[in-house]
Amino acid sequence: MQGSVDRYNFLFRSTKGLVLVAIALIGLATAFFGMLSGPMAELGIRDAWVRLFNRSLNPIEREGRIVMLYHTIAMAVVAIETYIITAIIPMKQPQRANINATITVGYIAAMLGGLVFAYFGHNWIFHGIFIAGQALIFFAGVLLAIALSPWNKEYRARPGSAMGPGGMDLERAAFFTMAVATLGSALFGAVPASFSGNGFETFLAEDVVREVHKDALQLSVIGHLHIMLTLIAVALALIVGRWLDFKGRLHRWAMPLMIAGTIVITLGVWLVVPFEEIAHYVIYVGSVFILLAALFLVIFGFDKLMRERLEQKIAQANIAQKIGALLHDPLKFGALWQMVYMNFVVTFIGLFMAIRLDKVIRVWPQREERITLTGHWHILAGIIATIILFYYADTLGLKGKARQLFGWFVIVASDVAFGAAAFFATKRLYVSESAQQPLVDAVMLMVDAGLATVLVALAILMVWRLLDLFRKDGWWKKELGEEVPQ
Amino acid sequence: MKLIVPLLIIVTALIVACAAAQAPSTPPRVETGVDPEVWATVPAGEFLFGPHNHPVKIDYAYEIMVTDVTNAQYARYLNRALADGRVKLANHQVVGAYPGDKFTGRRHEKQILAGDYLHVPIGDKDLRLVYDEKTFTVKPGYENHPVVAITWFGAKAYCEYNGGWLPTEAEWEKAARSSDGRAYPWGNTIALNQANFYSSRDPFEKGLGAQGGTTPVGFYNGKMYDGYQTLDAPSPYGLYDMAGNVWQWTGDIYEGMHYRYMRGGSKGVYGYNLRVWSRNSAEPDYYGPSTGFRCARQSK
Fold it and tell me: Would you call A333 exposed, middle or buried from its count of C-beta atoms within 10 A (0-12, 13-18, 19+)?
């Protein structure tokens, strides 16, 4: 009995356990519902899924199902980031416990209610559970914002880190800003959904990009999905900064930029509804601030990785030794490298699309533009997921060969997949429609192989953790002992 | 070193992949038994429009072609229209006059002034028509395939030359689904042998990959072709190919934008894009290997 209680405490009351449960649920949802997507449908797996579960997936409801699936996965990601934030940012233990408990019930309710409602019959009770879950997540967000208050005199800036007036911890302020911006941006999506009630006409943003007359609800939904993904990325950048003990001059530059960027980009997205054209320029300004802050983090992180490995003898090291030192820890290097790589497969392509929209992208049929858009944010979401995996693997204490193998497999495989996906999304720049098939076959093979490798690496990690739970004195016990149950 | 091997594999794969695809060989000549000269009548009345099934009323009856316009039909038209002077040749292209669109100066809107616009890019690799400096003929085997690589201007001109018009989106959708809110012309599910879409494994994908080639109009009519059994997939009004094969230009011109819309999905997109409300859009001078059209006309 005590063993079960201990395991429950590990899974639902410790940070590592809570993150493990959320990653496992995301992995299961991705693997299970991913069987319904394009390449899987091509292989006939979708049809087998439908037969196996005796489901009739009404084609009219496809967009609704997808929206529900995205939301449930995103909620779990938000929960993971929240667990990490409550663990690494000083706050009172009851606050930590309340936030984590609330968001855990919330995201699991949203996930179960949402997916059952969407894929297993439209029982409105499950829709209610989905909504209730989201409300709990929002409430947990309010609690988190309160706990992160940068004005609390108990939590001043660390020595050497960015400091505001009266010793205010600007990193804490950046977390706080992100939390408040996320709450507002959640409302930015929730209000139109609630306003329309059950009569909301579901659509995917990529399907309406060329429509001249987008109503306020459509604009707010489009803004909502963009800003939520952005804020998830901001939160993750801050987490990585904390993980690497980001401080010093670059930290003092980065934190004000991160705070200003988060505020500007969030306001820019909200402005999309009343002033769509101006809003884009505001968003660009906010993006530059955030990208600069992330750049400072990467410079600091790369330098730190080298210095730590070379034991401060960096001045005497040659270039090969420096590169070797930089690459010696694939988990920490991977988290930073993915931020750099993101610029090649997301940011630069996005900039190109924005600058050459009318001259290039909109000369193509809308279906081609749609592929670039969906590719763009799928890659960004994927990169975010890999950074979370690096962080999580590090917290598990992966060492030696396991650390090297896991880290490098995820870096190489995911970057092959994301690079190929970016190539696929922009294929019309290089190849005509009638000549595209060999290219499509090659890049899709790379995407599938890359993602499959990442999923296998994740599955190995998950199976290891699952088997560990059956051991009386497994890692879980050690990890539980390191942390006071919340 | 760890990164060099996968990097080399990737670069090699991309170089191989970027090599031009082999030109499709002459397709097998397949008679479907569906006559592309036949028109179906769509009665006046209300139907459910778009993904959210909004009731829309079309208060007149009209006729619409049972199939897409074929290469043979378009070649015939070009020879007559060139002789009549309705279209002309310029810089190895077929062009024709267009009166221009109202321009409102909205963001992203391009101005379309009165003038001559591209109808048919002669010599384009996707075009199944050949011009020998006198007449247009069809590449062997493609006679009853839908005409492709025709611009919106070229599609509109064809329909008007033949006394009709490009169907509006509403006319097109009503003809595709009638009034019961169905998602596909034949019902609410889609099977591989019901329409020509990406990786539907039809005989015209052989050697071409998942995107494949066009299928002859009316191919999915329940017949067996050399061992390949199709399902009969007409719309409620007896129209074929209202889902898949080629996107179909529609005639609407919307204020504030220069794009023209297409319906029906094509051989190059996944099955869900064949739902009757799925839209695609492009500039009116766009042409491609997966874009064709059919015409509507007044009910007799």
Answer: buried
Burial readout B12-37 (b: 16 or more C-beta within 10 A, e: otherwise): ebbeebbeebeebeebeebebebebe
Q: Which chain A residues contact residue B286 at CB under 8 A?
A: 363, 365
The ipTM, to two decimals, is 0.89
Q: What is the pLDDT of residues B12-41, one digit of tens each?
A: 555 555 444 444 568 888 999 999 999 999
Q: What is the pLDDT of residue B4?
A: 57
> Hey, is the C-beta of A419 within 8 angstroms of any chain B C-beta?
yes
Q: Which residues of B touch A210 (CB under 8 A)?
A: 108, 257, 259, 281
Distance between CA atoms of A192 and B107, rounded to whole angstroms?
A: 25
Q: Where are the beta strands (DSSP E) in A83-213?
A: none
pLDDT per position as a tens digit, B232-260: 999 999 999 999 999 999 999 999 999 99
C-alpha span between B194 and B221 (Å, rounded): 8
- Only one residue has tokens 């690494």, namely A88
Kind and range of the H or E run holding B56? strand B54-58
Domain ranges within chain B, ordered by starting residue = 37-69+144-298
Instruction: Find how far residue A258's CA is from the centre of its chain.
Output: 17
pLDDT tens for chain B, 300 residues long, are 455 555 555 555 555 554 444 445 688 889 999 999 999 999 999 999 999 999 999 999 999 999 999 999 999 999 999 999 999 999 999 999 999 999 999 889 999 999 999 999 999 999 999 999 999 999 999 999 999 999 999 999 999 999 999 999 999 999 999 999 999 999 999 999 999 999 899 999 887 777 889 999 999 999 999 999 999 999 999 999 999 999 999 999 999 999 999 999 999 999 999 999 999 999 999 999 999 999 999 998
| Helix (H) or strand (E) segment spanning residue B29 | none
Chain A nearest-CA distance from B108, in A, is 6
CATH topology for B37-69+144-298 is: paralog of FGE (formylglycine-generating enzyme) (3.90.1580)
Chain A: nearest CA to B83, how far in angstroms?
Answer: 31
Helix-strand-coil split of chain B, %, nearest 5: 20, 20, 60
Cβ distance A440 to B210 less than 8 Å, yes or no, reads yes
